[in-house]
Specification:
About 75% of the residues lie in helices and about 5% in strands. The chain has helices at about 1-15, 20-40, 60-80, 80-100, 100-110; strands at about 40, 55. The longest helix has 22 residues, at about 60-80.
């Protein structure tokens, strides 16, 4: 899902403008996603390496994840890719339903 979201951020960035800046946006948007995803993490998160640059409370990390995936879903909608939008939204929902134990863990981490 992270790869799909990063690609979506890049495509949306490219489509953002018709000028020569579209290449800059196509590069910067995925970098923004990757930076937020990689920098703000919960220490010892078993679904990740356990390492973090900025130790983030679990609820903040969960909100960040949902915001980034929600933004990617919205970007697909904005681009007119409604089928892909629903596929990504469904994948995100299924992922979080299947990882309720992780959500519980995140909510306990301060």
């Amino acid at each position: 899902m992270e790869v799909a979201a990063i690609v979506t951020f890049g495509i949306w960035g490219y489509a953002l403008t018709g000028s020569g800046l579209r290449i800059v946006w196509a590069i910067m948007m995925p970098l923004l996603f990757a930076a937020l995803w990689g920098i703000f993490a919960v220490k010892d998160d078993p679904s990740r390496s356990g390492k973090t640059v900025v130790n983030t409370p679990g609820i903040v990390r969960l909100i960040l994840e949902l915001t980034l995936f929600g933004t990617a879903v919205w970007m697909l909608f904005d681009l007119g890719y409604s089928t892909l939008e629903w596929i990504l939204a469904g994948a995100v929902i299924l992922h979080y339903i299947s990882s309720l134990d992780r959500i519980g863990w995140l909510l306990k981490k301060k």
